[in-house]
Write a structure and sequence with these properties.
Helix content is about 20%, strand content about 25%. By secondary structure, it is an alpha+beta fold. It folds into three domains: about 60 residues, RNA-binding S4 domain (Structural Genomics Hypothetical 15.5 Kd Protein In mrcA-pckA Intergenic Region, Chain A, Roll); about 80 residues, Alpha-Beta Plaits (2-Layer Sandwich); about 80 residues, Alpha-Beta Plaits (2-Layer Sandwich). The strands form three sheets. Strands 5, 6, 7, 8, 11, 12, 13, 14 and 15 form a nine-stranded mixed β-sheet that branches. It has a four-stranded antiparallel β-sheet with strand order 2-1-3-4. The chain has a two-stranded antiparallel ribbon with strand order 9-10. Strand 6 and strand 7 form a beta hairpin. Helix 1 packs across helix 2.
Length: about 260
C-alpha cells in the first residue's frame, strides 16, 4: 500500500493532506524520513508523523463523522494561523484528530462534515464519485428569469471552463436551490454572478444523502453508523459510453 494511503487509513489526514505531510518531510518509516508518498509499506513498519507513532493515531481514531451547521465567519480548516474560529472548534471529541470534508467559504453557512476517516473523506471529495451538494442561494436582482435559470441548468462558462449542468429551481423570488456535484472554488457564487445574479447569502443544506434539517446554527451531531454506511456506499459515477473504468474525469475543488 502507498504510504500516503496508509496514513489516510490510519486517520492521520485525508489522502491529499497525507501526501503533503510526506512531501514536507514530516513522516518517518523505521526511523528514516521519507519524502515519497508512493513508497510501499506493508503495515509492519514503524511509522511516525511529527514524532507521533501511527498506532497512537489509530488508537485515537474512532472513525467518526460529525455534521456541523457552520455559522458565518468560521473557517473550514482544522487550525487557523490568524486565530479565527474553525469548524473543528465546535466539536468536542477528545483524543480524536478531526478535519473537515471539503470546505465552505467563511461567509457561507450550512452543512459541513468532520471526520477522522481519511479514506472516507477522500471518497466524498473525489470528483469521480460526483457526490451531490445542495445549496440555497439568496441572489441579487430577483426574481431570476428563465434565461438565467436555463443557463445554470445547462452549464456556465467560467474562467476555469464550463461547469457541469446543475439542478436549479427558484424556491421563491430571488432564492435558488442549486444542486451541483462538482466542487470548484466558490462555484455557486461564480455561476450566479456569471448569469447576472450575484449571491448575497449562501447555505449548504444537503451533502449526498445527508440533510441539514432543523439543526441549529452552530449545532453538531454525530452521524449514526447507518448514515456513515450510506456515505461509504456511494460509488463512482461512470460518464463514459464505454462503461466502468473507461476514464471518467472531473475536478476536485473544495469550496462553494
Amino acid at each position: 500500500m502507498r504510504l500516503a494511503k496508509h496514513l489516510a487509513h490510519a486517520g492521520v489526514a485525508s489522502r491529499r493532506a497525507s501526501e503533503q505531510l510526506v512531501f514536507d518531510g514530516r513522516v518517518e518509516v523505521d526511523g528514516v524520513v521519507v519524502t515519497d508518498p508512493a513508497r510501499d509499506v506493508g503495515g509492519e513498519e514503524h511509522v511516525r508523523v511529527d514524532g507521533k507513532t501511527l498506532r497512537a493515531y489509530e488508537r485515537g481514531a474512532g472513525r467518526v463523522v460529525y455534521l456541523l451547521h457552520k455559522p458565518p465567519g468560521v473557517v473550514s480548516t482544522a487550525k487557523d494561523t490568524h486565530g479565527r474560529k474553525t469548524v473543528v472548534d465546535y466539536v468536542r471529541a477528545p483524543g480524536t484528530r478531526l478535519y473537515p470534508v471539503g470546505r465552505l467559504d467563511a461567509d457561507t453557512t450550512g452543512l459541513i462534515l468532520l471526520t477522522d476517516d481519511g479514506d472516507l473523506a477522500h471518497r466524498l471529495t473525489h470528483p469521480r464519485f460526483e457526490v451531490p451538494k445542495v445549496y440555497l442561494a439568496e441572489v441579487e436582482k430577483g426574481p431570476v428569469r428563465e434565461p438565467a435559470l436555463k443557463a445554470l441548468r445547462e452549464g456556465v462558462r467560467l474562467e476555469d471552463g464550463m461547469t457541469s449542468p446543475a439542478k436549479v429551481r427558484q424556491v421563491r423570488a430571488g432564492v435558488l436551490e442549486v444542486t451541483i456535484h462538482e466542487g470548484r472554488k466558490r462555484q455557486v457564487k461564480r455561476m450566479c454572478a456569471e448569469v447576472g445574479h450575484p449571491v448575497k447569502a449562501l447555505q449548504r443544506v444537503a451533502y449526498g444523502p445527508l440533510r441539514l434539517g432543523d439543526l441549529a446554527l452552530g449545532g453538531v451531531r454525530k452521524l449514526t453508523q447507518a448514515e456513515v454506511e450510506r456515505l461509504k456506499a456511494l460509488g463512482p459515477v461512470d460518464n463514459s459510453p464505454l462503461g466502468p473504468g473507461a476514464g471518467a474525469t472531473g475536478r476536485d475543488g473544495q469550496r462553494a
